[in-house]
Amino acid sequence: MSAEQGSQSSVLLGPPSAPSRLDDLRYTLSQPVAASFIGGGVAGAVSRTVVSPLERLKILFQIQSHGREEYKMSVPKALAKMWREEGWRGFMAGNGTNCIRIVPYSAVQFGSYNFYKRFFEDYPGAPLGAYQRLFCGGCAGITSVTCTYPLDIVRTRLSIQSASFSGISKKAGEKLPGMWALMASMYKNEGGFFALYRGIIPTVAGVAPYVGLNFMVYETMRNKFTPEGQANPGTLGKLAAGAVSGAVAQTFTYPLRFQINTMSGMGYQYKSIFDALRVIVTQEGFRGLYKGVAPNLLKVAPSMASNWLSFELTRDFLTSLRTPEV
Q1: Rounded to whole angstroms, how far apart are CA atoms 215 and 207?
Q2: What residues make up the domain containing 205?
Q3: Rounded to two decimals, what is the model's pTM?
Q4: Total structural domains in the chain?
Q5: How far apart are CA 305 and CA 319, in angstroms?
């Protein structure tokens, strides 16, 4: 009897078990690139939803021109007009597509940044210099734009098509196309695959330095806001660092972001980045390069602050999942 019990006991205890699938999953998710990829996706969705009304208003301000001045007013009045004419749907117009776009965009951006910086680290986790952060961030921006640009240009169209602008005709009761229908229409009627990437060169020209500056300034300001004797800043420090990095990056790169101006049917199309700069400065002066910058800067603080804080919280949670080695 005792022998049988001993046998059963040895069966129950058995040899040390091999790592389970759950342990393997926890290990995979805790890796720096994977944790940054997932954290970036969460951060993008949170930050863009927070500032969706201002994101759309920036686009509507950007397409103002002579003879199309329905939104030539202050930010509060423009938001009130949007609410009065379209309600909550107006505030969120294009946000569904934007979130579908921003999750992979932000995930690829943060994940690829952590991938690229490995080539410059003296050892895993070693701090990078300012120019190294700028370069890795620029490469991450190019990678993320290339992967998600078709969703970006469709999101821009969706933000514009329901607004009240002269020259953009809408029949009474007409149901506007959704994301996939609009993408299919562009593919069929505007040049196939290349229609979905129209305007990507000026967009990359704006995004690459923007993302590079964002990462460089954030990590620099993060160190500034870290109390002496501590490894990381507090919540308010991360929020402040994110707000500063976003404002600096947007201010320096805003004139380069002209993907809207390649849109057919808006009455004008630019041939290149330099042609856009020349035409805008000639017709509207230097201030034309910063048309729509007010709502853009207003959204930068909450957007980038929530973006970086969400990213760090998610990344830290995932990296903590790694099972300690015995």
Answers
A1: 12
A2: 22-165+178-319
A3: 0.70
A4: 1
A5: 21
